[in-house]
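Pasting as-is:
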Amino acid sequence: MTALTPSLAMIAARLETAPADIELLTDEVVQGDTPDWRDIAVSPHLLEHFARRNDAAPLAKRPIGGGQIHALARRPGFGALLIDAWQPALGQWRGWLVTPDAAYADACALVVEERDAPVDPRAGLVLCDMPVCVGVAELGACLGVLSQDRLQAARWLEQHGRDNAAVAAPGVIARVALPGGYALTGTPLATELQQDGRLAYRQLLRQGLQQLQIAAAPAAATPAVAVTPVTPVRAANASRWLKLVTAVAATVMVAQSIWIFLPTEFTGSGNAEYRGGGSGVETGKRIRVLFRADATEAEIRVWLRRQQLEIVSGPDTMGAFTLLTRDQQTVLPPPGAGNPLAVINP
């Protein structure tokens, strides 16, 4: 069996518990003494690894969206997820398992390339034949963002990767023509476990997913809501309708100032009570949010009405708005399909 890097024993160490079938690792024999690493220089490959991780670090807190690669929150060392689309019926994100192990690519896998940079080195291989669905809480730090063309390549490999008629050659990565471009991928899997370590590799990954209770995704033909990658957050008051909201808020503030400083004989009350731009006294729970820069006024109005929310202040210097809800138990849905949110509590 062709030896691939990292070894299957190292892959097994990423699982929460030892693999159910230890025979998967019997073909790997470690020989020789452990080297003294103190006299060994840091390899250029390792330095490049650190540099790639540093370049991708600013993406870590990016809001969840299609085309992004997010580490699995409960076991970030095990793998990540390339997000494809939101599944409304499941209330989960659909995507593909991502690992760092490009050497284990088969004909259905998408190898992450330099053109995808910046990408954390923990995201090296998209296993398009292992689609899964996860909830928002299962997604951790963002490791990278792929373009729509690359996302489409992953979808194509999921559907047609197994049609590759090449001979099985573990460890070989080659360029494959795709509609509108190309992708780096591996060769088809062999039929026998002893001939191809990639078969054992996938068994280990499936065991890891079972331990994390992550279910396989429905077939790709299942209708899904495509999600456009989240654009970098910019000042929300750049939109025309938000400028209008700002003007209205300023008018309300002026009116309030006049009311407060008028003599009591004009106000009819000796004890003026501050009221915000919303309806009635501002009692309830407040939440700061940033709306997507491309969200329309109508979209936000409908969403606010559906969630029983109202804007009581904003935009501030960050472009954030403060929302008011009368229900202290209200929890906003995560940014994604079906709402105009970009960031909650920025």
